[in-house]
Specification:
Blueprint (H helix, E strand, L loop, with lengths): L4 E7 L3 H16 L2 E3 L8 E6 L4 H20 L4 E6 H6 L1 H4 L6 E3 L7 H9 L5 E3 L10 H14 L9 E5 L1 E2 L10 H4 L4 E2 L2 H13 L4 E5 L7 E4 L2 E4 H8 L7 E5 L8 H10 L6 E3 L7 H6 L6 H14 L4 E8 L6 H14 L3 E6 L7 H5 L6 H24 L5 E9 L14 E5 L5 E5 L8 E10 L2 E6 L1
The chain binds iron/sulfur cluster (SF4).
Length: about 450
């Protein structure tokens, strides 16, 4: 490529998308692109998109509207849309005047070639998986595997921390969820490739690795008469020199391997005592309508087992309020479950019908927006009270924190030694804010907790 082409990359959505963006950035740099942090200076703009809620897609369309104007004065600008929205809409997106390239999550290994073609003025291209639910061929899997292993050590989102995908796709078909239709069937990566990647990351100074999967506890890999589970991966990874902390997201509240996973959390000091396990609703009627194959009783029993096997475990949940047909009684059951679950925190969303999902095809979006909003606010308030009670347990205690860097208001809150305010997390994923030298970034620090808010612990270096 004659002149180093400057690329502006924007990433929307979940950790899986952020990991794809890190892989893509690694590959494009190798292909001769240089990152720029302003659209104004860019020759290429790349948006890694999310389809999980309507709002996420609307944001992308508003950015595309803006880019369309920029292209009036900068006609050579190449705009690429990648990720879940690209896979969901495909050619549809090419109808937007600003878009030159559409590339689905499973086609990102081809991106640097597709971008170069687009820059040579070749006609606008769509590269998506035609039959998204069809099992990928070994060749397709190997292409993604090579791409992951080659660029999966580039992830510099947070110093000394990295995300490693252990499986792609999802086979659960929760009726509200678009993921199975944009990320395809579940494919577990070979354990040796995952271990190799973690070793490379440890050699690069990474101390914490988070294993990623849509249903990460469903990880299963047959090899030489043995079935590898997530518990086996955690156990093997905890023997890798340099790795201090291991996490895994996102768990699904059932599955045959759960006890093994909890046992590894209890036995291995390196596996963080944090579990992110969405419930989505407390009403069995709604859980059935969502095709979430457990009851609220079974869910709470699982949390009980987790607290038994891993004392002091910290648990986070997810909920959708206002799902089709949700009555006040159903919502009360959700409030009741949240009260019993005693989460550290819960991510709460209003139901947003997604085109192509079972719920969208078969169920009406019956709950008015103001009712969804009221239930969202009410459930947040119930959870905030619990988070506040749990955070108070840390007052006066000393906690081990992996420091992520400067807090958002780092220099506003300098201490008497001119140390900026830093932010980090405990093993239980509690956010900790304290003052200290910036050189602590990426390192562990002992912090004494002196004040709390529902979601943040404030302290002083121990
Ligand atoms: S488990 Fe359900 S909610 Fe999670 S990614 Fe799969 S289909 Fe979506």
């Amino acid at each position: 490529m004659d002149m180093m082409k400057r690329i502006y990359v924007q990433s929307f959505g979940c950790q899986m998308n952020k990991l794809d963006t890190a892989l893509v950035v690694g590959a494009l740099k190798e292909a001769g692109f240089r990152l720029t942090d302003t659209v104004k200076d860019a020759d290429v703009v790349l948006m890694n998109t999310c389809s999980v809620r309507e709002h996420a897609e609307q944001r992308v369309f508003s950015h595309l509207g803006h880019l369309k104007h920029i292209k009036e004065s900068h006609p050579d600008l190449v705009v690429g849309v990648i990720g879940c929205m690209a896979q969901r809409l495909g050619d549809e997106l090419l109808k937007h005047e600003a878009v030159n390239l559409v590339c689905g999550p499973a086609q990102i290994p081809r991106l640097s070639v597709l971008l170069k073609e687009a820059m040579q003025g070749k006609k606008a291209t769509t590269a998506v998986t035609e039959k998204i639910r069809q099992k990928p061929t070994d060749e397709q899997n190997q292409l993604l595997e090579d791409f992951e292993s080659a660029y999966g050590v580039e992830d510099k989102q947070i110093p000394n921390q990295a995300f490693v995908r252990v499986m792609r796709g999802c086979n659960n078909f929760c009726t509200y969820c678009i993921v199975p239709y944009v990320r395809g069937p579940e494919v577990s990566r070979p354990p040796e490739a995952i271990m190799e990647q973690i070793k490379k990351l440890a050699d690069h100074g990474v101390k914490q690795v988070t294993l990623l999967g849509q249903r990460v506890n469903a990880y299963q890999y047959q090899q030489g008469g043995r079935t590898w589970s997530l518990a086996d991966l955690l156990d093997a990874a905890s023997n890798i020199k340099g790795i201090e902390w291991l996490r895994f997201v996102t768990s699904y509240p059932s599955g045959e391997f759960f006890n093994d996973i909890l046992q590894v959390m209890a036995d291995s000091p390196k596996v963080c005592n944090y579990l992110h396990i969405p419930a989505q609703s407390g009403s069995d009627r709604i859980l059935q309508a969502m095709n979430r194959r457990y009851s609220s009783r079974e869910y709470l029993d699982l949390l009980g087992r987790a607290r038994e096997i891993v004392p002091g475990i910290s648990i986070a949940g997810d909920f959708i309020v206002g799902f089709s047909g949700e009555t006040e009684e159903d919502f009360e059951a959700t409030i009741d479950l949240v009260r019993k679950a005693r989460y550290k925190n819960a991510f709460i969303f209003k139901y947003s019908p997604r085109p192509g999902t079972t719920a969208d095809k078969r169920l009406q979006d019956t709950i008015p927006g103001d009712v969804k909003q009221r239930r969202n606010v009410e459930l947040l308030a119930v959870q905030e009270k619990i988070s506040d009670e749990l955070s108070r347990d840390f007052l006066g205690k000393e906690v081990n924190v992996l420091v992520e860097g400067l807090s958002k208001k780092s220099h506003v809150n300098m201490d008497q030694n001119d140390n900026p305010q830093l932010i980090g997390r405990t093993s239980g994923d509690w956010i900790v804010v304290f003052n200290g030298p910036e050189s602590l970034t990426g390192q562990f620090a002992q912090v004494k907790i002196t004040a709390v808010s529902p979601l943040t612990l404030f302290g002083q270096l121990g």
